Each structure stands twice: as structure tokens, then as C-alpha cells.
Amino acid sequence: MAAEHSPLEQFAITRLVELEVGGIDVSFTNSSAMMLTVICLITLFLSLSMRRHAMVPGRWQLMAELSYEFIAKTVRDTIGTEGKRFFPFVFTLFMFILFSNGLGLIPHSFTVTSHIIVTFALAAFIFLGVTLLGFVRHGFKFLTFFLPPGVPIFLAPLLVPIELISYLSRPVSLSVRLAANMLAGHTMLAVFAGFVVALGVFGVAPFIFIVLLYGLETLVAFLQAYVFAVLTCIYISDAIHLHH
Asked: Which of 95, 120, 98 lies closest to 180 in space, CA to CA?
């Protein structure tokens, strides 16, 4: 019985359609279903919002335009004029994480960004892409990124390993930050929701707290998507400009 009411039950992966290809489990799970739902909702939101292209935008068109300009400005300010080519990727990444976080706040839904395997896959793809971009753009000169300019050469044996470890830890910190925030926030919501049910009419205080916590989690859902997008822009900028 305790397991049925565990606040961690909401993070369990369940198979909806069991599939196996070449001995590899490729089952369609609740996580897969939620990610597919997120993609469909983003497509519908952007397509329907911009369908009329009105000079005086309605609320949905305004939301779509604000989202577009918000990320476009972030890309310009962080990467510069060369960041235009990366805008579609950063915008898609931001919208995917934002919608995933937002849908996870709906009771009895599933939060894909609370799973480290999902966030690490995103972070690892960004890390490999940025590293490849750095080598394609600068060749082996990209390795000078690990030795800050103006540093005496005799300090290289000390600083290069530190810079290398810092660089290799990027996908870990990027993925853990998002997953940990989603996991902790949703667990707290589930715990206090349990208090409200258990206390009945005396659960007013936990209910008020959970309303406030829900508002905070809504803000965190947006901030985590934004932070993920900003850090991606910073990593791209580092690959393009090196120590500039």
C-alpha cells in the first residue's frame, strides 16, 4: 500500500506498447507518449497562433510572437549576429523543455524532464554538437580554449586539466540541474497533496501552501527552460568565439 501512495510513483516508466527489435527493448512508454504529445502541442500552438498573421495580434498570436522574440533576443545577445543560424535549434529546445515542464504540472501527468536519461540525452547532444562546431570552425586551434590567453605556459599543466574537467562536466551539470529541479518540485507537490487528503477539513494550511508551491513550480518550469536555452547559447558562443 505504501508504494501505491509513494510521491515517487509519478515518475515511474510504464510500457504502453511492448516492442522488441533485435533483442533491444524499444517499447512505447508513457514517457514516449508525453514527448510525442509535447511535440504535437508545440506544433499546434505555433501553427494555429500564426495562421492569420494579423497586424493587431490576438492573445495566442501575441504569445507565439513573444516566445519567438524572447529567444531571438537571447540568441543575439549571447552569440551575436552569427547566432541566427542556431536560432531554430535553440527555440525548439526551449519550447520542448517549457512544454514538457508545463504539462508535468498537470495532476496525474508525466514529467519527462524529471528523468536524467532525457535531460542527459539533450545535454549530450548539445555537448557533442558544440564540440564538433568548435573543431570545424577553428580546427585544432579549438584546443586553445582550455588554456586562457595571457596565462604563463608553465601553468598549463595545472590549468589545462582544470579547464578540461570543467568542459567535460557541462553535459552533467546541464542535465542534472533540470532533472533535479523537476524531480524535487514535483515530489514536494505530491507530498503536500497527500497531507491535504489525509487531514481532510483540517488540511487548509497544506492546501494554501501547495497553491503557493504550485505557483513557484510554474515559475521554475519557465526558468529552467530559459536557463537551459541560455547555457546552450553560451556553449555555442564559446565554440564560435573561443576566448573573445
From this structure: 120
Residue 184 grid coordinates: 524535487
Highest mean pLDDT among 103-117, 124-138, 140-154: 124-138
Tally of structural domains, the chain: 1
pLDDT of 196 = 66
Cell 501527468: give the residue: 109
Q: What is the pLDDT of residue 195?
A: 67
Residue span of the structural domain in which 16 resides: 9-241
Q: Is residue 218 part of a domain?
A: yes
Please check whether residue 156 lies inside any domain of the structure.
yes
Q: Could you report the per-residue pLDDT of 176-212, keeping only the tens digit for each?
A: 999 999 988 878 877 777 666 666 656 677 677 778 8
Q: What are the residue ranges of helices labelled H in 29-169? A: 30-49, 59-79, 87-104, 116-138, 156-168
- Residue 2 belongs to some domain of the structure: no
Pairwise CA distance, residues 103 & 96, whole Å: 11
**Residue 4 located in a structural domain:** no
Helix or strand (DSSP H, E) at 240: helix 204-241
What residues contact 61, with CB distance under 8 A and at least 6 apart? 49, 50, 52, 53, 54
